[in-house]
Amino acid sequence: APDATELAGVLGVSASWFKARFRRQMGMPPGEYVQRARIERARELLLAGSRVTDVAIAMGFSSSQYFATVYKRFTGRSPGVLRRGSGAAVA
User: Which is higher by pLDDT, 35 or 83?
Assistant: First the structure.
């Protein structure tokens, strides 16, 4: 996925202008918006029964541990807890 600097270049504006405008419109910086979208998609995959490691890879995280850390920061609980709560078998 393109980062904020690349998107700004496509739009013909500076990265700082793009980031400020994005924050004003969306209420958060572009990077946080992307992370929240990734975590929401990960949540959907976990609820569907996907393994934590598989979700971490699918969402582009460098490791399942890093994914778990980011997931917990955004949701307040670990991805394993969500899987266990969904009735999916823990793998």
Answer: 35
